[in-house]
Sequence to fold (113 residues):
Amino acid sequence: VQLQESGPGLVKPSQTLSLTCTVSVDSIAATCYSWNWIRQPPGKGLEWIGAVVYSGDIYYSPSLKSRTNISRDTSKNQFTLQLRAVTPEDTAVYYCTRTMAYWGNGTLVTVSS
Fold:
């Protein structure tokens, strides 16, 4: 399985961060896995943001739930992350994963005016 994150590398404060993960080989709807978004701010540890599972159910980190929306497009085999009202503290490398076993390369998103 291969995962690839895509989206803007720079977002202004108060705007919405939007990322897409494109999955190759595995079908995100047909296989019994969770498809996750995880981030790592500079100099800090990993933080789980949320996940969509094969059934379509979606789960969020309680600390980010109020600002986060995760969705999927099974026709494109993609799942997406939207994080609203971003601040510089949301600057991080964002990863999409299949469970914790397979990771994309990550994409750096900087929140700055």
In short: The first strand starts at residue 2 and ends at 6. The radius of gyration is 13 Å.
